[in-house]
Amino acid sequence: MHRGKLALARLLDATGVHEALLATQARLRGPHLRAVNYHDVTPARAADFERQLRFFRERYTPMGRADLVALAEGRWRSARPGIIVSFDDGLRSHAEICAPLLERYEIPGWFMVPAGFVSTPPSEQAAFAAAHRITAESPPAPDGRLALSWDEVRRLDARHVIGCHGFQHERLSAALSDAALEREIGLAKRTLEGELGHEVDVFAWIGGEERSYSASAARRIREAGFRFSFMTNHAPFRAGDSTLHLQRSNVEAHFPMSVVRLHVSGVMDLLYTPKRRRVNRLTS
Hints:
Layout: H1 3-14, H2 17-28, E1 32-38, H3 46-59, E2 61-62, H4 65-72, E3 82-88, H5 93-104, E4 109-113, H6 115-119, H7 125-131, H8 150-159, E5 161-164, H9 178-196, E6 202-204, H10 215-223, E7 228-231, E8 237-238, E9 246-247, E10 249-250, H11 257-264, H12 267-271, H13 273-283
Parallel strand pairs: 1-3, 1-10, 2-3, 3-4, 4-5, 6-7, 7-9
Antiparallel strand pairs: 1-8
Helix pairs in contact: 1-11, 3-5, 9-10
């Protein structure tokens, strides 16, 4: 973690600025949500992750898919802001560590699954992860498995939300070919729907770098029938905002609580404004 960010987070905590910003957002923004995204949560970090969930549960109203639809349509009401807690990359810790803790605190999880990773034989998943920029910090299962199994994805689907996170976890840059875009968006959607037996209309872009977004991929996401797509450019979501530009803030289990508060306080929204505007223009 960048030392400057950690120092700023600690300063805003110590001076009470974080607390004031969180309270102000809750009062002034009207009905809105914050979305955060995690990656791997190792067994050693389970207690840290649970501490973060307690913070979200105390400050926010957890939201499932029906709640997001209601907010998008202007029908959602809550005395507190909403929170979407999402997980990228289809890692086995999401079923083994994250889901039980989410269910303890009655928080729906949003699990963004790269279908090709889950479909890869366990003995080949370490090579797949290395080749496709998936970081798995948890120890593998005895058979080498790093990803969720399809049975685990189906069990998560019964109580949580499953979204599409590409097929091979490729960045959807302007350099990607039409065939690769079809694989990462169209084939990924069809594979998930075939395994789950119902429509999947949630997509999460792969990577947060500006070059990871493109107009061609945005068009494919719309044409494929996705109603919601998540990006990673720090901003709340309100009724009337584009449901294809749902912004998330990256949070990891190893982050100190001061950094978690920094990422949801609104400070990062301001810092990301130029990038977010460029990405939104490109993908609209």
